[in-house]
Specification:
Number of strands: 14
Strand content: 15-25%
Radius of gyration: 24 Å
Largest sheet: 7 strands, mixed
Strand order of the largest sheet: 2-1-3-4-5-11-14
Number of helices: 12
Length: 356
């Protein structure tokens, strides 16, 4: 088996230079770098990752903690994070916190004990224990999809504003409002919302967008038209059934993620109701088979690949500059106009994003 010394002899350089090329610990002339890489390829040299980590205190690995990996949205996030990590020479360790604060903390500890260089986490509705652990151990971390609010007063479950964590997510308020105003523009006056799990920032923001859309359309907010589907299919089916059982049920419905869309459609089918004939439907989260439903689903498409790429970028920047201030990056979504809302297809429209 070839050694680092063999590579150095073949390339005509020192062992230290080979180490600098492998670990990016010092600038090396392009011609020298190429000579080393060619020697590695020719000799079939495989670096000892464990030995390298002992020297550099880096494992070239990233921990990814996201719940419901079977969810198409998080599947795309996973694929994007993995692609970004591999592009920069990092491996990926994946764990599912199950949106449970206790399990989330356990997952965070396990990834930290595996000596990952940093973590990308989709936090639960109550991430306080995990946030405290990551801050106490100075683990470079990017929160993804769900925002953890800063709280100088140290409110339980909130992010200490002094802790340098980065966050990246999609816009939620304006895109949800856009679905509501679109349905109102079609003449609907009783528009229901199947919202996600209480406590998640995405749930709160999409409810805020729902209420903002109602106000913009001159419609009153009726709390009876909002039911929580807890971000999963079975609960959304029950929530939709509750809305349909009202004395004055909604004539249009917004579902706040793709899993809840499936549950809502199941509830409608079991009652023999058609979309959009009996009830118009719009959903937050586009997914690959949304275009195959009949009718085709009008949806808000989140930029999952871009979110994943930005999460990796922010984490790598954090690793390079651990003490810089935390940033929140919000990316724009796209309104995908199909036919479940009751009107013809339209071109894709983007919504605005911002960085803070």
């Amino acid at each position: 088996m070839a050694t680092m010394a063999d590579v150095a002899r073949s390339a005509g350089v020192s062992v230290a230079t080979v180490s600098h090329v492998l670990n990016d610990t010092r600038p090396v002339l392009p011609s020298t770098r190429q000579a080393v890489l060619s020697a590695i390829e020719e000799l079939g040299y495989t670096p000892n990752t464990l030995a390298r980590s002992l020297v550099t205190s880096r494992t070239r690995s990233i921990g990814l903690a996201v719940s419901a990996i079977s969810n198409p949205y998080f599947t795309e996030i996973l694929q994007g994070v993995e692609a970004g990590a591999l592009e920069h020479g990092y491996s990926l360790l994946i764990a599912d916190p199950h949106d449970d604060p206790e399990h989330e903390l356990k997952v965070g500890r396990l990834l930290h004990e595996r000596r990952v260089d940093g973590m990308i986490v989709a936090p639960s509705a109550d991430p306080g224990a995990l946030v405290a652990y990551l801050g106490r151990h100075a683990v470079p971390t990017v929160f993804l999809d769900r925002v953890v609010e800063a709280s100088p007063a140290g409110r339980a479950g909130a992010l200490d504003s002094a802790l340098p964590f980065d966050q990246v997510c999609a816009e939620n308020i304006e895109p949800t409002a856009q679905l509501v105003t679109h349905l109102a523009g079609l003449g609907h006056r009783r528009i229901g919302l199947v919202a996600g799990r209480p406590g998640l920032s995405t749930t709160g923001e999409r409810i805020a967008g729902y209420r903002h859309g109602l106000a913009a359309a001159g419609l009153p907010y009726d709390e009876r038209l909002l039911a929580h589907g807890d971000s999963e299919s079975a609960a959304a089916e029950r929530a939709t059934a509750t809305l349909l059982a009202l004395a004055a049920p909604p004539t249009a419905l917004v579902t706040a993620n793709n899993a809840m869309t499936i549950g809502a459609l199941r509830a409608l089918r079991e009652r023999g109701l058609s979309v959009p004939g009996d009830l118009a439907l719009c959903c937050f989260d586009d997914f690959v088979w949304a275009d195959l439903f009949e009718p085709r689903l009008t949806a808000i498409a989140q930029p999952s690949k871009e979110i994943a790429a930005e999460a990796v970028r922010l984490l790598l920047e954090r690793l390079a500059a651990p003490d810089r201030s935390g940033r929140v990056l919000r990316l724009p979504c796209a309104f995908v106009h199909r036919t479940s809302c009751g009107c013809p297809d339209q071109p894709v429209k983007s919504t605005k994003g911002n960085v803070s």
